[in-house]
Amino acid sequence: VLENQDLQDSIKPQKVEFHSLNFNTTLHWQPGWAREARDALYFVQYKVYGQSTWQNKDECWGISSRICDLTHETSDIQEPYYSRVRAAWAGVYSNWSLSCRFTPWRETVIGPPMVTVAHSNKSITVKLQAPRSPYKRKRGSTIPMTNYYDLLYQVFIINNLLDEQHRVLVYEGKEKVVEIQDLRPGVSYCIVAKMYMPMLDHSSAYSSRQCTVL
C-alpha cells in the first residue's frame, strides 16, 4: 500500500497555473517528480468559485499534454474560476492538484495593438488596431479588448539618429489613426505602441517596431 501511496504522491502534478492573454486562457502544469510522471496521463476539471460540483473538461481527459485550453469555460470574465489536475500512471491515480483562483477580467494580460505606418515627407500616419478577444459577435467578428476595458493607445516615436532605445510618447488617447507631424526628412523613425488601462494602471507590452525613413 505504501508503494502505491508513494507513487500517487510522486506523479501528482505540480504548479497548476492559469495563463491568459486577451482572454485566451490555458491551464499549465508541471509533471510530478517521479521518473514515471513523464509518461503519466492527465485529467482536468474546472468550476466557478462557490459551485460545489467540478466539471470534467472532456478534451483534457486522459491526455499526455501538460496544457489545457479553458478559453470557452472561462468566458464569463467577471467570475472567479478554479481548475484542478490529477495524473494517472499504470492504473494508479494521484490526488488532485488545485490551481489558484483565476478571474479573467482581473488577470488576463492585454496584448499590444497592431500598428501600421505610412509616411509623407514630413509626417507619419499611424494606424492602430486593438488586440481582439476570442469571443465573437453574433455576426461572427471577434470582439476587441476595448469593449471590455477603458483602454487608451499610447504611441511612441524613436528617432534612430539620436538613440535607438529612447522612446518619446507622442500620443495617448482612443483615436485609431494618429498623425505625427513636423518630422525631419531623410531621418529614420520607428513607431511602437502600447495599450494602457488607466483604471488598473496596467500597460501592455510594446508592439513590434514599425520603421520608416521620411
From TrEMBL:
One of its GO terms (cellular component) is extracellular region. Residues 6-96 form the Fibronectin type-III domain. It is found in: Secreted. Pfam families: Interfer-bind, Tissue_fac. GO terms for molecular function: cytokine receptor activity. InterPro entries: FN3_dom (IPR003961), FN3_sf (IPR036116), Ig-like_fold (IPR013783), Interferon/interleukin_rcp_dom (IPR015373), Type-II_Cytokine-TF_Rcpt (IPR050650). The keyword Chaperone does not apply. Residues 108-212 form the Interferon/interleukin receptor domain. Keywords: Disulfide bond, Receptor, Repeat, Secreted, Signal. Receptor for IL22. Binds to IL22, prevents interaction with the functional IL-22R complex and blocks the activity of IL22 (in vitro). May play an important role as an IL22 antagonist in the regulation of inflammatory responses. Belongs to the type II cytokine receptor family. This is Interleukin-22 receptor subunit alpha-2. The lineage of its organism: Eukaryota, Metazoa, Chordata, Craniata, Vertebrata. The gene is Il22ra2.
